[in-house]
Amino acid sequence: MANTGFPDEPLHKKGQDGEIVQDACKIIYPGSNGDAWWDSAQFLEQVKNAIAIFNLAHPDCQALFVFDQSSAHASLPPDSLKAFDMNKSDGGKQRRQRDTVIPLTNPDVSVRGKVQKMTNEDGSPKGLHSVLTERGFDIKQLKAKCSPVCPFENKNCCMARLLSQQDDFADQESILETLIKKTGHLCIFLPKFHCELNPIEMYWGWCKYRY
């Protein structure tokens, strides 16, 4: 949903006669013989439409879009940094990830702020061992990944967990956030596990009561 600063106005634009000429509402009928299930691509198109309508209706205003913490809202670009998608060694069947800048919080001061290539000169993607070594981490006693999952309380249990905790891996903008900011509007995400702060829950409650 979007908070446009005009809470009583829905996300649609009306013509001179009051008829709705552009609407951000999307109704789907998914199923084996119906529409495709709702996904991130459709959601992003809906947001683009909502932004276009807002710009037409309120050309001198800035919108604040408010979202919950659903997986669709947090989707990252295809080349995003994901430590758990990486192999221990270079190459192999792992996707290429974008280059990054080593955070200023990196333990090895000498490499802070430096660009780190995530691929080798031959184009092969770097593995966990190479990336962490270039950052100055001592990983001699670390395994590549925990199995089946990392202990919740441990931040340095394996190479993947250690790298995933670094600022450039942990603090990445979602596709949604990048899209909205590029258009000059604002975007915030509600805290996890606090449905009482989410306005959509009130709308759902009213709809369930009414219908």
Characterise the protein shown here:
The chain is an alpha+beta fold. The protein has six helices and seven strands; from the N terminus they run βββαβββααααβα. The chain has a three-stranded mixed beta sheet, with helices on one face. Strand 2 (12-14) and strand 3 (20-23) form a beta hairpin. Helix 1 packs parallel to helix 5. It is elongated and about 70 Å long. Residues 1-9 have low confidence and may be disordered.
- Number of E-state strands: 7
Structural category is alpha+beta
Estimate the mean pLDDT confidence.
88
Shape: elongated
Sketch the topology as an H/E string, one letter per element.
Answer: EEEHEEEHHHHEH
Determine Rg (CA atoms, Å): 22 Å
Q: Low-confidence stretches at least 5 residues in length (pLDDT < 50)? A: 1-9
Helix fraction bin: 25-40%
Give the tags.
single chain; 211 residues; alpha+beta; three-stranded mixed β-sheet; two-stranded antiparallel ribbon; elongated; disordered N terminus
Q: How would you summarize this macromolecular structure in one to three sentences?
A:
This protein has 211 residues and is of the alpha+beta class.
Write the layout of secondary structure elements.
Elements: E1 2-3, E2 12-14, E3 20-23, H1 40-57, E4 64-67, E5 100-101, E6 115-116, H2 128-134, H3 159-164, H4 167-170, H5 175-182, E7 186-189, H6 199-210
Parallel strand pairs: 4-7
Antiparallel strand pairs: 1-4, 2-3, 5-6
Helix pairs in contact: 1-5
